[in-house]
Amino acid sequence: MIESAARRLAHELVNRREAINRELSRNGVRFGIYKNGEYHDRLFPYDPVPRIIESDEYDELEKGLKQRVNALNAYLKDIYSDKAIIHDGVVPEEYVYTSAGYFPQVNGVTPPGGIFAHIAGEDLVQGEDGRWWVLEDNLRIPSGASYPLFVRDIERRISPRLFRDVRIRDNREYPRLLRKAMDFVSTEGIAVVLTPGRYNSAFFEHAYLAEKTGAALAFPEDLEVVDNKVYFLDYAGKRHRVGVVYRRLSDEFLDPFAFNPDSVIGVPGILSAYRAGNVAIVNAPGNGAADDKAVYYFVPQMIKYYLGEEPILNNAPTYMPMFEADRKEVLNRMGELVIKDVAEAGGYGVVFGSSLDAAAREELANRIKEEPRRFIAQEVIQFRDIDVVDPKTGEMSPRKCDLRAFVVTGKNTHVWYSGLTRYSSVPGQMIVNSSQGGGFKDTWVLAPESGVEHEYGAETQVVNLLNQSRRHSLSLVTASKADNLYWLGRYTERAFTTLNQFFPFYDRVMDTDVDAFRPFAHALDLPEDFEDFDGFVNSFLYDGSNPDSVRSAVTSAFNNAVILRPELSSRLLQYVELAMTNITDAAKYAADAEDIYKQRDITDDMLAFWGGIENSPVDPTLKAFIFIGKYLERIDLYTRFGLTMEELEAPLKKLAAYSMTLDGMPLPSCFADGLSWLVGQLPSRGYQEVADLLKKYLDDYSGRVSALAIKDMGSLSSMNMDAKRP
């Protein structure tokens, strides 16, 4: 009964596929890929046909996953302390110490709370006979929870009546489980999500989970270690003690003092603070020693050794070339097995022997003989196909799918009632990783007949966490984010006012000639020799490679906004995302000589964004950072276009009002620099009175400007309409 109702609901979602994808797009649900050395944001392909798992079946999975992760945590604690499992001959020591994920730098360290793998991503497949098999344990920085978490919220709104009628376990408690695990191990201080940067492939997830858990999103330059304690630096240089770091960068790059000395994305000294017990790191450094593909072979023995239990979940039948008997088996059956390079991840280094010709098979066999520790071989599991909607034909097409289940360990171990189901992009292909072109589905865990299960009052606690996530105050704004807020205000205003001023001039050209457009170009210091006027206009509006274009202003607004998701919320950032989509659409219309009026959508997006910020629970000081930038830009543009003092009165009053919000507080140097530059320009434009008024603001700022340098802003704040402008 329950399953059939769920399948009816799934069919309804198929009919709403375009609407769901549109919502994913406008909310920036992306992951990044690097191609030919360049970073590209792409939407994570979503398929509306969910994986449906019956309640009793998932209960058994839950038991097995808890058992497995508890054993892996016990193993990590053991090999970095007593090493009993080695001394007792269960796991050969060469497999421990030769693992690329084993770090002697953390030997003897027991992390806060005694937990190593706070978040485990367990990759499973379901065989055609219905049995579940574990393919991999991911205990370092498993990603992907944000995608089913986000899409479920959209699905519920797309078909609210149907979701009321179908008993599916609620998946919204993941942020609560994550934050509870972080709080359980925290030493003293705030919680941060440490991201390596905007151009990391999983940056959306970093920012989204920071938003949902109420943690501060930190870049490496935002943290420093003093006296073996970790501190978060705000924009004024004040330190805030950090108690737990949910790190989203690999061990090798975490601390240049302890690991890779060439790392520029790590936090120098953080490992010393961790070793001293002054900060918790989620997940713990050194966890790679337990999710090495070769160590996977020994997990069933770990379960028996540490827990005294028989494994509930199946390991894929695995062969270890370092064992002579296994090596002979692998070499004799190369064409039947899948060979995995233990040093690779993300679907790379996986070779199906059946796909190789004789020469390639021989070459791989020689590599296995030379480096047997580097490889494992597994029986090919014929796992179950699940239908996806072919994006080209709209027809159902069977694809291979795996399931990444998330297990969160704090005071207790919990299995999230959801998971990331990934599907292959090509029918019959067995590699499903997103980096290999795969997409994702939601995972519906059916509730028992008694009703929907909510763990420990999850609904109320998640709401509390969401409220907490909106209470980011100015005290947790870093120097770089202060700059982002300011430039977000400037670039949104630049796109809005430039477009509003553009159309009256453009209309005059239709009635007279291109000379009517020269005052507009002159005001913005743009070229005035219109040899190809239509080409000039097209470039000014739509050319993303032209730093003077409206499209560049929208892109710059987006680049500053996307970093501010925890502070401003996904709901508000969607308007900047929409502006990006609309400027792209407008460019397509223009290329076909169609509706130039499509530009109206971009100005509407900006109005919606500003209105949303003004009426949101965002901290008033954060609003002030945005609107000071906005009104400085408006005054600059209005005076360029020669508007009257009466028209300037409103933005001047707004600037004064928002400046008063920050009365007595330190101000980032970008504010004072922008104001100083504008004061210098106004007399030559004939606005001495405005210059004198702004000079008073500038004098008031003196002595309150933060001297903390912006360490790594890259090009985010240097994309300006011309070199003369701030």
UniProtKB/TrEMBL annotation:
Record Gene3D superfamilies: 3.30.1490.270, 3.40.50.11290
Top-level taxon of the source organism: Bacteria
Signal peptide: none
Organism lineage string: Bacteria, Bacillati, Actinomycetota, Actinomycetes, Bifidobacteriales
InterPro entries for the chain: ATP-dep_Glu-Cys_Ligase-2, CP_ATPgrasp, DUF403
Organism: Bifidobacterium longum (strain NCC 2705)
PANTHER family in the record: BLR5612 PROTEIN, SLL1039 PROTEIN
Protein name, UniProt field: UDP-N-acetylmuramate dehydrogenase
DUF403 domain: residues covered: 482-641
Pfam family membership, one: Alpha-E
Circularly permuted ATPgrasp domain residues: 50-378
